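re the bet — no i am not wrong, look at it urself. input seq straight from the record:
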Amino acid sequence: MDVRRVRFPIGAKLVTIISSFLVLSLGAIAVLVSILVSADVRISAEDHNFTLNKRLASGVDAFFGTVLSNTRTFLNLGSAFGSPDDAAAFFFEKNPYIAAVLAENAAVFINPDFPFPQGAAFSDAAFQEAAEAYLERAFGETFVINGGPRFGVPLLIMFFPRSAQGAAAVFFDGKKPLRDSGSENTGNRSFLINESGDVLAHDESGLAEARDLSGRGLIKIALERGDRNFQTVYTDNGTEYFGAYQRLAGTGTVLVTRIASGAVFSGISAVIRRNILVSAVVLALSILFIILFSGTISRPIKALAAASASIEEGNYRISLNHRSRDEIGLLTRTFIGMGHSLENFEKFTNKTIVRLARQGALTRTGTARTVAVSFIMIRDFGELAGHFDAPELVSFVNSFLSRIVPCITGTGGIVDKFLTQNGVVVMAVWGGTGQDGQPGRHALACVRSALMARAVICNWNAERAARYRRKNITEHTFSPVKMGCGINTGEVIAGQMGSEERMEYTVIGDTVNLASRMEGPNDLFDTDILITENTQDLIGSCLVSEEMGSLEVKGKEKPLRVFSVVNMKDRGEAEKIIAGLDVLRHANPLISRRCAGPLGPETMAEVRKGWLL
């Protein structure tokens, strides 16, 4: 089981669910705000723009009236000052925003203090020329044009009739009408136009340049409708505006005020953006909290999944944190208990067989395999057992098995069973769970295991002798443990055998029977490892062995030759023995190297001496 292959973790589920809920909630709030508030804001914006337009129009109208009245007074009473120049000086001192006055008799009065562009020359002829084309029209009406394009400075020219005496014109600052009316203090934009659609001024620059807007937006509407005032919503260059206009009486000008709907709703948009920002922060904090919280759930579950995979691989010693008092803590404690139970249970069976059964690699049908079979027992067990009471005897047997079993499993063997018909016997098999066509490799591993067992038994004898000496035991003479091992190689039938309630995986056949008969003659020949002739033929070139003679075996027509294993001749196999012993808990390197391997015995006589170490 691969615990990493989780497609949708719990943390991701919680984040997705809560994030979706928050996003939907915020979306609903934004829609409600847009629907419920936008209508009220629209009405308020239209009313405010219309009211502002009326106020600005009144201010501009009053400004134009003041300019016209002051100029008429100057022209009518100029002689009272003694000379026209004195009258003009007084007039421009009181009205510094007026640049020049053109009288009906073509006399030009220029304000020397007006901020004309540096280096520009403004003469009587220049002002007369600027007004010449409009003077005839001024006999019947008052109107205003933009003089900025001609003079390079925001400048308006107002033409007005002088009854029978002719027409006059006044040149004044183009910024002042809207500026004095307070248009610069609002978010709305204002334009002053004449009846021809020319922009006279607006609240940003006063417009020194010429612009004809007669065909655009609200200005076009104002010129076409002709009514005094009007408000509407219109689109200009793709932008929606709230607009209003007011026609100024007496000057033929129209004041237009507008504001983009985007600016009107920018407050709402700003609120929505702030709400989204706050919500995003809340969402991020929520996600962080969810991730931290989900970790308290997902981490124990992942640990349980990893522990499950570990148990599936046969490792029942699992370490889990079970301090939490919730359901996961209960499950963890139960899981740990299950692991301990399985670990204890596996001690009563074979780990390799359990693993293969767990993987479904074992079947009820028998399979023919070529294997190496080993039977190992304690020689003279009855004599040794007489020196122990029941608890000591069990401890003695367990000590023997705890040293022999690692030698078997460490070389790839499987402990098939423990037998007790003639003492304590361990039956082990190499190659019983897979057919790889290498019986020689299995036979070498079997012999290597027997040589390792010889070394650990010698070490055990040394430990027991030292313990006897420390305790001054005199009840009986110390007797070293002698191992008896019989090995055979050949074909067997391997498979699961038993009932539905209990079964075991084992091997049966003549090869097994012959291996069990090879263990007993060790007493006859005073040896510890005997192999059959067919095993000798298979791997004898790798061994140091001595032929012990022939044995009559029931069921065999001819006597069987028997060989005693002294050591490994093959250096690679000898080094494997030493390497295997070095990792065993019950092996002593000094004793091990004298029992097997490159420094081990070369004759059976040397082997017998080693039993007394």
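see?? The chain has a mean pLDDT of 81. told u. also The two ends are 49 Å apart (CA to CA). so pay up
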